[in-house]
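Lab notebook, entry 355. We have the chain sequence and a SMILES string for zinc ion, and the next step in the workflow is to get a structural model of the bound complex before anyone spends time on docking refinements. Request logged below.

Task: model protein plus zinc ion, output C-alpha cells.
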Amino acid sequence: MTIPDPPIVDISTLTFTDVPLKPTAGPGPYTRRDLYEERQTPEAGIGAFAATSIPSGTRIFCEESIVMLPDEAGHVDVYNAVKSLGEEKQVMYWALAASTKASRDVAWIDRLRGGCDEDISSTFNDLVSSHEQAWSIYETNRFTCKSVDGCTKSLGIFPQAARLNHSCSPNVFHRYNPVINRLTVHALRDIEKGEELLTSYIDICHPTVVRRQILKHWGFRCRCSACDSPDDDEDFRRKRIEDLFSKINKREGKRVKNGSKWTDKEYKRSLGAVVKCIRLLEKEGMEETDTLGVMYTDGVRLAVKVGEEENAVEWAEKVVEIERKCLGEDSKEFVAAKELLEMARGVQRAKAEGS
Ligand SMILES: [Zn+2]
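Result returned:
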C-alpha cells in the first residue's frame, strides 16, 4: 500500500476554464460549456452562474462521473477509487467541497490497519485523514444514479454539477440519465445572465423545518426565498402538498391491492386530490418532474378511469413537456411520457369511434 499524497489543492486557482475540455467527438450537448461560469460566492463556496440568458428547458450541461460506486461503498472503496483516477481527475476530486462531519462508524479503520504493512505506523494517521477527507468529499458531493430499470442505485461524483448550490426554489433540475450515462442539468425556467444556477438537493415538498433538518447533512442553513419567506402561507402550501402527495400515494397503494373493487366515486375522489395538488404546485412554481410531473401522470391515469379523456390527453401533453424540460428527449422518462400520451389519445379515439 502506498502512502497517499496530501490533498494540497488551492481551489482559488482552479477556475472553470482550467478544467480540460474532453475531445469533441461526442454529441454537441455533451460538451457545451458556454452557458455558465464558476465563481466564488460570498457564503456558499464556488457556485455556477449564467454567463448568458438561458431559456427554460435548455440543457445547460451534462457530464460523466469521475467516480461511481455502489450504494454500499465505504471509506476504503471511495479512497481507492479516487487514488486510481488519473492526475487531472484526482485534482478535480480533491478540490471539491467537504462539509460533512466524520462518520461515527470507525470499524473501517481497523480493516485499513489490518491491510497495511507493519512499517506504516508513523504515517497511519495521515492515511486515515486522507480516507476521511475522501469520504467527506464523497458524502458532500455524491449524486444518486439509478440504472435504466431503476433497480440498481449507485452514487456518482460529477465535478461540474458538484458546484451547483442548493435552493428549495431551484431554477435548474439535475438527474443522472442512465441511457446516456451522464448527469444532465436543465433550466426549469428562463434564467437571466448573472443569476446563480441553483438546484435542489432534497425533496422540495417538505415544510421548512423538515428541509432544514435534512439540509444539515451538508452543513448549511438554506437562505433561499422559500426558507426565508415571511409568508407563512407558502410553508402551509408546501405542507399541504406533502400531505396530498402522501394521501394520493396511500390511496394508490390501496387501489393496486384491490383495483377491481374501486368504484367510479373512489377514482374521482383520488382525482380530486390530484387536481388540488396540481393547483398548489403551479402556485408554488414547483413545476418539475418529481412534483408536477408525478401529479399530472397520476391525473392522466385517473382521468382515463373516470371517462375524462380530454383532460387525460391535455395532462399527458403536460407530462411530455415537463420531461422534455427537466430531462430532455434522450431520457427514459420522456419516452414513457410519449407512451402515456399515446395511451390517452388511443382511449380518446376509441371513445369517439364508439359513440
Ligand atoms: Zn431553502
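Notes for the group: DSSP finds eleven helices and ten strands in the chain. Worth checking against the assay data. The chain has a mean pLDDT of 86.
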